[in-house]
Amino acid sequence: MSLEDQAVRNNMTVKHKRAVNDNINCCENDLPCCQTSYWYQVMQATRNITRIYVFLGNPKVLVEMMNTMHALQMFDNGEYMVITVDMETYSYREAFKYLWQPEQMEKVENCEQHQKGFLNRGRSLLVVVSSPPNEARYRDFTSKVAEYNKKEPFNFTMPSILQKDGFHKYVSIYAAYLYDAVMLYARALDMLLQKYDVVTEEILHKVASNGTLIIEMLKNHTYESITGSSIKMDHNGDSEGNFSVAALKPYRYVYSTKMYNFTCDYFIRPVAGFQQGENPEYKPDCFYKPDSDSDSDSDFDCHIDWPGGRKPDDEPSCGFEHERCQSDKQQTSVIAAATLGVFLFCAGVITLSIYRKWKIEQEIEGLLWKIDPQDLHGYCNNDIISSPSKLSLVSATSYESRCGGQVFATTGQYKGVMVRIKELKFSKKKDIARDVMKEMRVLRDIRHDNINSFIGACLEPMCVLIITDYCAKGSLYVSYKYYDNYLCMPLGSTKFWAFG
């Protein structure tokens, strides 16, 4: 079953797939992919429709692809992830191949000199590898292999010169696979032979040579490998295997040769494993040690350090083609309408505020209480008065009230209504203060039955005319002055009756 079929089976959508050639084959065959712009073209064609890249191929080509993605700043915001699969078992000594090429490591002293922003680039990579063996158990297995190699029929002895230098012969992981295969075959054969009461040489040969029957015994069977892993055989008799996820974690990595030293404070380390068995599970794998002398993993954090601080999305929130969001035209129209509405609202509020302030200023400055002198009629300093000889007695009385020295008040006509006029004269031009104007505005707004309303004022350079309602009965002072004789008798009578 292909990787694409597995993805569909697990409810994943494969947007596209593309076959690429590694740089070695391209250059050997003089293909277009040998050009340095090849990966640039691939990334430009796929970056807008992809968030997670699954790479299957040579680690050297993987490094070239990720270098191009880094140059295009695709790792800056943590939006893209690269997942690569390596069928080889994880090896601490070879894990640098996922991050750097040897010729790149020769030119610099550390990973920061090699590439700025290396941390985001490294954290954007997840490596799926065959799970490494259990350190203690596998070390015991390799030591036994070395002992048996010295015995008959192998007789693989180590030269004395290598023994003096403390040389340890490396045992490949395939030795463990061979051991597991022999043990599985032996267990299956033993289970088949237990069905016979008597096992003869003929029966033994017949059963041992029946591969089909032995495979049937191994189907859907789970066993524990010499590496310490729990491995499950599927319905076809194939080993499903155990895999680990490796990611960039804080770890002091040193790569030394006679020519150069390369160091980095981060390295690709296993952080979790997919354990097969009766109940497959995904569990942390935080305590893998690259060598027996390493104690730096006692507090190793097995969580994945995501480049953007959180797990990246497999696709944008609106979809790759904005199919789950409104179209750009509709969104632009909504934004434009909202902006225009806010602008009009703000303009209306500002205009209303300015108008209100202007209106108050006009009221204070006198547009409402200021009266044009030409609007006053029958006032002696304004109108032309007829000769007193031609006036009737009633008119003469009225004339006296307007222009004479009587104590009532000077009167006139304003908009057809009799008003009282009080003239204030000054020896020089008088400017009315703003506070006085405010008081005039307040007086004009006062309405009460027992108060003569203030109507307004005429402002002239040397005098001010104050106009109020005219009270025909006169003021309290005038009433007391002119009707004193009439008041004395009632008041005296009241006193007489009060005191006997």
TrEMBL record:
Q: Which residues form the Protein kinase domain?
A: 393-500
Its EC number is 4.6.1.2
- The primary site where this protein sits is membrane
Q: Which InterPro entries would you find in this protein's record?
A: ANF_lig-bd_rcpt, Cyclic_nucleotide_synthase, Kinase-like_dom_sf, Peripla_BP_I, Prot_kinase_dom, Ser-Thr/Tyr_kinase_cat_dom
List localization entries.
Answer: Membrane
GO MF annotation, one: ATP binding
Catalysed conversion reaction: GTP = 3',5'-cyclic GMP + diphosphate
Task: Locate the transmembrane regions by residue number.
Answer: 334-355
Matching Pfam families: ANF_receptor, PK_Tyr_Ser-Thr
What is the enzyme's main class? lyase
Q: Which UniProt keywords apply?
A: cGMP biosynthesis, Lyase, Membrane, Nucleotide-binding, Transmembrane, Transmembrane helix
Which cellular component terms (GO) are annotated to the entry?
Answer: plasma membrane
Per its record, how is this protein called by name? Answer: guanylate cyclase
The source organism is Cryptotermes secundus
